[in-house]
Each structure stands twice: as structure tokens, then as C-alpha cells.
Design goal:
The two termini are 66 Å apart. Strands 14, 15, 16, 17, 18, 19 and 20 form a 7-stranded mixed sheet that branches. A 6-stranded antiparallel sheet has the order 9-8-13-12-11-10. β6, α4 and β7 form a beta-alpha-beta unit. α1 crosses α5 and α2 runs parallel beside α3. The protein is of the alpha/beta class and 630 residues long.
């Protein structure tokens, strides 16, 4: 409390009560108060509306009205100062109604004296100040990027900040009073039990938790727990601060996978070297014996020995290709010719139940590479696609130019800024489960039956691509198919690139609504748009997007929305926006741009489809195309 006097308004229709109260004020020992008096309901309403006082003392009986009516009306009009209700005789029902209505205290006049009144005024002021401090602290917690919440020992939520709303896709009103087991699922329940045990022993716990939100989104959080005493009338509670580290862990996984492959490669290289030393004399001796031994049985056995020694040597060559790329003769290649050869082989050898489609962009850039090795890469990917479609399906091979900018490079550890040619092999087969997706490039790892695969195919593909300075991305869903994207550095494109950069289309200050549940993509997209004379506002899900569009419909010229989001998916968001404005211009975005997803998006009436990840150039050109449509 500061040193300024406490301004008190007495609302009482009896002058004797005013005189008595004024005398009590003169006896106050701690609190310095200034007293004003009004004697009727209407005057009290006007005085309270002026907000000039710190505390109100209100008599229960005010002519035809009651102090309880005044209390309720004042609070409904936004009065935040404490109101103390006074009555001539004690009535527990009135006391209870007063407290329910929001009274700071309820005092019986017959028992009232100076010390009791002073204490009631002081406590009311102090409680109000404490409440304000709590609200300010809660507001600070809402500003934080970390999800902060409080739960009791049974898991019931008592406090929930705005970052928790965003992380778990659950509003505060829904979360408060709900058990956390209904808001998300823990992947490792035993770790949760260990955390609770440690918390009870030490009063705190820190660790990483893998969770699945109610919308199905898998997240990893760095969690910090602290045991709190007496929160919201609970004897013991847990204060939890969760920091999402999903993207960080994904980048770590990429890095660790690269390290693991490098370690396996080093080991395999040494083994391959020793195997070569073993196989070379076997092969040479067998070939010498073929010309020296004439008996019929030996003549039959020696070719078997030679053939198998050569097979062993080929396996060693594949291992070396994985470990260091086996430098071959590099020439400037036009990949459309290579893809044409592959298509011809597929049509002649693959089952007729597999439909083969090729799409090659005009003016495809050239790459510097070994034609034999790149042929091996594409053939291997196509054979794997065939094996994933035992009952038939669709195999699509595409090739296009692609310029990687700083935004894209930040999203992929292996990518470097510059021009690339991207070859994509897509099938509609069985797909790859998420459990083994990280291991498919390891040497000797295979999901095929014994004798049907060496496990060196994809590891050789990776080695060849890396030796060409490129990288490979894989997208797969069980039961829906797989997509392998091979990125190879392009050659002789500087002049074309410079021309493209000069023509990078800029905006005219138009406002664009960007909708994506990934923070990094929202931020990068917004930055790119603003750098090219657009304005941008962002939404983290469909519900927020609808609210923002309703507020800024007249200013928003275009909506850029992801197709897969929690709360409200992209298709529902698009349909809702179209109901609000049938002429709304929409660009749909997705990480796995399968034909089904693209066709579905176009069927609901979007203007363009943009596959993730996209460059600033692709984004701006797509926006320009949509803007130019009549």
C-alpha cells in the first residue's frame, strides 16, 4: 500500500450512521482514510460510475432498493474496487448472497466498531492489490512462448496459459477442470510414473516427454515440473512448464542419422577393402585353373566358383559406392534422356498392371554426373516401387528445375543454396511405416523376404547421390504409397537464374493471410512476403484463420493455407472461407503433394496448389499467377 489516503464512499440513507462512521474513521490507527457520503441509490450509482474512490461501504437497506442490488449493478458495470456490505442485523442468507455477488466483506452494524471497520477496509484493499498482481503475473505467463499450466496430483488442470492453448490445441475454458489424460496421450507412461516419484521426493523434475495431442499431432516437449503448495485451495499441485522441441529433435535425428551412416560407411569401407583382398586371388586363381584343369567335373565347378567370386566383388563395389560414392566419369547430362531409357526398360519388363507416367519440364537444366550410376539410382527406385505394388498401381517419374534459397536450406540440413534438378519417383504401393523410415538407407537393412534383397539398394542410391553433391528426401504413408525426391546440383544455369531473380514478382501492399500450424513456416513465409512488398497476417490453425478473415475480410486479397492442421483441417477451412466469401482467392499448401491431395484441393475450388517446402520464388510466382486470374 502507498502513503496516499484511502478514499471511501459511504452509501447510507441514515445521517446518524454517517456521523458514527466518520467518528470511527477518526479512531483509525493504521489506515488514513477520507470519507464521503451519499444518501440514496441513484446518487451512489453516479458516484461509483465516476471511479473516484478506493472502497465502497454500502448499507443493505436503501429505501425501495437494496445494497445487494447496487452491488450487483456496480460489478456488472465494471466496478473493480472492493464493496463492503453493511446491515442492521445478521442474516446468513444475505451474507451468502453478498459473497456470491462479489462483496469484499459483509459487516453487521450492531457488532461494528472502529478497529473492525479499519481491518475490513485494509484487508479489502490488500486483497484487491493481490488480485491485480496475480492478474498481471498471469498476463506475463500468457506472453510466454512456453506452455505453462498447473495441475493437481490427480492430473486435473487448475491453470492454463495461452501458449498451452496453442501447443495442445485446447482453449483455457475447455482445459480448466479437465484431466490431462483427456487433453493428450503420453507415449511412455512408465517415464511419467518415474517423474511423479522424483517430484514427490525432490520437489522438482526435468525431462523430455513424447506426447500425442487430441488432434493426433505428435510432439516432443522439454518438461520442467515443480511441486507447489496451496494453489487454488489445493494442498499440493504441480507447476509444469513445457517447451516444444519437436523441430529441434527432428534436426538432431537427421544429424545423428548422418553420423550413424558415416560410421557404418567407415566400417563397411574397411571390410570391403579386406574382402577385395580376399576375393581378388580367389577370382584370379579360378580363372587360371580354368585353362589348366581339363577334367569334366572341374570344368563344371570352376565357372560356379568364378561366378560367385564376381558376385562377391560386385557386392563389395556396392558397399564402396555407399561409403565414398565410387567416382566415375562425370559428363554434362540431360536427365530427360536417362528417364526416357528407364521408361522404356520399365514398359518392357514391369507387369502390365503397373501404369507408368513421366512428366519432364521444358528447358530442364543439365547436371554433371556419371550416367551409369544415375541410371542405377533411378532403376533401383523404380524396382522398389514395383515391389511395393504387387497387385498393380501407378508409378510416376517427374523431373523439374528447382532453385533452393535460404528459406529452404534452413528447413533441410543437406540442402545448399543454388539451382537443382529434382527427379521424383512416386508409387501408390504399400508405403513405409514410420518405425523403419529412418533406417531404409542403412547398408544390409531390408524388409524383403530372405533371398529377395541384399539391403544394399537404397544405401548405394544414397552414396551415389551424395557423391554427386545432391541429397534425397522421402515421404511415405502406410497404405498410400511412397515418394522419393532426388536433388542433383544443376549446371550452366547462372545466366537463367540471374534473369529469374531480376523478374522476381513483388506485391503492391496487398494483405495475405498465411495459415499453417508450423511456427517456422509461418514466420519464414511472412518474412518473404513482407520483403517483397506484401503485408501478411498469420494463423496457426483453421479456427484462428476464420476469425481473422471475418475481421479483415475487406483487406485480405488472398489466403495461403496448409491442408493438414489440428482443430480444423485445410479442406474445412477452405469451404468455410468460401461460404463467407464465394470469391475468395486461395492457395493450398501441403508437404506430400500426391495427386489425390492436389485433385481434392482443386475440386473444392482453390486457385493454385503449392508443395512444401517452397522457395520465395515459387511462393511469389504462384501468388502473381493467382492475382492475375480473372
Amino acid at each position: 500500500m502507498d502513503n496516499s489516503p484511502i478514499r471511501v464512499l459511504l452509501v447510507d440513507d441514515g445521517e446518524d450512521d454517517y456521523v458514527l462512521t466518520r467518528n470511527w474513521f477518526s479512531e483509525f490507527r493504521v489506515a488514513e482514510c477520507e470519507l464521503e457520503w451519499v444518501d440514496n441509490y441513484e446518487a451512489a450509482k453516479i458516484a461509483i460510475a465516476q471511479c473516484r474512490h478506493d472502497v465502497y461501504l454500502v448499507d443493505y437497506r436503501l429505501g425501495v432498493h437494496s445494497g445487494l442490488e447496487l452491488l450487483r449493478e456496480a460489478i456488472n458495470e465494471g466496478c473493480s474496487c472492493p464493496i463492503i456490505l453493511l446491515t442492521g442485523q445478521g442474516d446468513w442468507e444475505v451474507d451468502l448472497e453478498a459473497m456470491k455477488a462479489g462483496a469484499a466483506d459483509y459487516l453487521e452494524k450492531k457488532q461494528l466498531n472502529a478497529p473492525l471497520l479499519e481491518r475490513s477496509i485494509r484487508y479489502a484493499i490488500e486483497r484487491k492489490q493481490t488480485e491485480q498482481e496475480i492478474r498481471q503475473q498471469a498476463a506475463l505467463l500468457d506472453i510466454a512462448n512456453d506452455a505453462i499450466f498447473v495441475q493437481d496430483l490427480d492430473g486435473q488442470v487448475l491453470f492454463w496459459n495461452q501458449a498451452a492453448e496453442r501447443l495442445y490445441d485446447c482453449k483455457k475454458t475447455e482445459a480448466i477442470g479437465t484431466n490431462t489424460q483427456k487433453l493428450w496421450q503420453e507415449k511412455d507412461l512408465s517415464l511419467l510414473q518415474q517423474a511423479l516419484a522424483t517430484l514427490q521426493q525432490k520437489g522438482c523434475w526435468k525431462g523430455e516427454l513424447s506426447q500425442t495431442t487430441k488432434s493426433g499431432k505428435e510432439i516432443i516437449v522439454e518438461s520442467s515440473w515443480t511441486l507447489v503448495h496451496e494453489f487454488a485451495h489445493k494442498p499440493k499441485c504441480i507447476l509444469i512448464v513445457n517447451t516444444e522441441i519437436t523441430q529441434k529433435k527432428q534436426l538432431e535425428a537427421q544429424f545423428l542419422r548422418a553420423q550413424r551412416l558415416e560410421s557404418i560407411g567407415t566400417l563397411a569401407s574397411g571390410i570391403a577393402h579386406d574382402l577385395n583382398n580376399i576375393l581378388a586371388p580367389i577370382l584370379m586363381t579360378a580363372q587360371l585353373l580354368e585353362s589348366q584343369i581339363k577334367d569334366e567335373r572341374s570344368q563344371r565347378l570352376l565357372p560356379i566358383l568364378t561366378t560367385n567370386a564376381k558376385r562377391g566383388a560386385n557386392l563389395v563395389r556396392q558397399v564402396l559406392s555407399f561409403t565414398r560414392g565410387l567416382e566415375g566419369e562425370r559428363t554434362l547430362l540431360q536427365l530427360k534422356h536417362l528417364i526416357g531409357e528407364i521408361q522404356q526398360v520399365i514398359k518392357e519388363t514391369f507387369p502390365k498392371s503397373i501404369e507408368v507416367v513421366t512428366r519432364i519440364s521444358q528447358n530442364l537444366w543439365t547436371v554433371s554426373g556419371d550416367a551409369t550410376q544415375l541410371h542405377q539410382v533411378l532403376m533401383n527406385l523404380c524396382v522398389n516401387a514395383r515391389d511395393a505394388m504387387p497387385t498393380g498401381g501407378s508409378l510416376t517419374i517427374t523431373a523439374e528445375n528447382f532453385s533452393i534459397d535460404e528459406n529452404y536450406a534452413k528447413m533441410n540440413l543437406d540442402a545448399k543454396i543454388g539451382p537443382y534438378v529434382v527427379v521424383t519417383v512416386t508409387d501408390t504401393g504399400t508405403g513405409i511405416s514410420s518405425q523403419i523410415l529412418d533406417r531404409i538407407f542403412e547398408p544390409f537393412f531390408t524388409t524383403k523376404e530372405l533371398g529377395k534383397g541384399t539391403g544394399l539398394g537404397l544405401s548405394t542410391v544414397l552414396g551415389i547421390i551424395k557423391s554427386h553433391g545432391g541429397f534425397i528426401n522421402v515421404y511415405s504413408e502406410e497404405g498410400k504409397g511412397s515418394q522419393f525426391k532426388v536433388y542433383l546440383p544443376a549446371q550452366d544455369t547462372k545466366e537463367a537464374l540471374d534473369e529469374t531473380e531480376l523478374e522476381l514478382p513483388a506485391g503492391n501492399g496487398e494483405l495475405i493471410l498465411v495459415v499453417d500450424d508450423e511456427d517456422a513456416i509461418r514466420d519464414i513465409t511472412k518474412t518473404s512476403l513482407e520483403a517483397h512488398n506484401y503485408k501478411a497476417i498469420t494463423a496457426s490453425d483453421g479456427i484462428e484463420a476464420i476469425a481473422l478473415y471475418a475481421e479483415h475480410q475487406e483487406e485480405i486479397s488472398l489466403v495461403l493455407t496448409d491442408m493438414v492442421m489440428p482443430s480444423m483441417d485445410g479442406l474445412t477451412t477452405i469451404r468455410t472461407l468460401q461460404k463467407m466469401n464465394p470469391n475468395v482467392k486461395i492457395i493450398a499448401v501441403s508437404g506430400l503433394a500426391t495427386h489425390d491431395k492436389v485433385n481434392t484441393a482443386y475440386n473444392v475450388g482453390i486457385q493454385a496448389f503449392l508443395p512444401k517446402p517452397y522457395t520465395a520464388n515459387q511462393l511469389l510466382k504462384t501468388i502473381r499467377t493467382v492475382k492475375d486470374k480473372i
